[in-house]
Each structure stands twice: as structure tokens, then as C-alpha cells.
Amino acid sequence: MPESAGREYTLLGADGRRYRSRTPGALGGHRRLKIYGRLDCPAALRALARGGYIAHRVFFADEDTAIAAGYRPCAVCSRAAYRAWHAGLAD
């Protein structure tokens, strides 16, 4: 039986509202900074280790949902997506 069997996770939807899911999030984010990235992101892991970040942690099912909710890619772990996002600001 998979580890997540019977568990529920709280994810953020495209509308920015929380919902319950039996599938864990594929991406993590920071609610105040409106940033999303990989769960193994070195910058996020350092921030979590320092504390404080955990209170603003959110999770997304996928990248499209994070973007639709108004979050931007992390410049550390999602460098290519961040560059594309940043280039879009200059247009």
C-alpha cells in the first residue's frame, strides 16, 4: 500500500483557495512571496531549516495551477521558467 494511502493533503488551487487531495503536491511555494518551486529546492530547504517559512508554505498539484494562482517560478530551482517569466515582465 502506498505511503499516502488514506492521507489527505492540503493544496492550493488555481483560484488560490485551499482544497483537500489524496495526492501530495508536486511543487511547493511561499504564500507571501508568491513563489513556487521544486520540493527539493535548495533555497526553500535552507529557509525551512531557519524556521518561519513553514507558516507560509503552500503546495500545488502542478506548475499550471501555481501560475494560475498568481505565483512565479523560483529563480534557484526553476531557472529556465524564471528567466521566461522575468523576460515577460520586460515586454
UniProtKB/TrEMBL annotation:
Occurrences of domain Ada DNA repair metal-binding (ranges): 29-78
GO MF terms held by the record: DNA binding; methyltransferase activity; zinc ion binding
Protein name per its UniProtKB record: Metal-binding protein
Domain of life, per lineage: Bacteria
Keywords: Activator
Signal peptide (residue range): none
GO BP, one annotated term: regulation of DNA-templated transcription
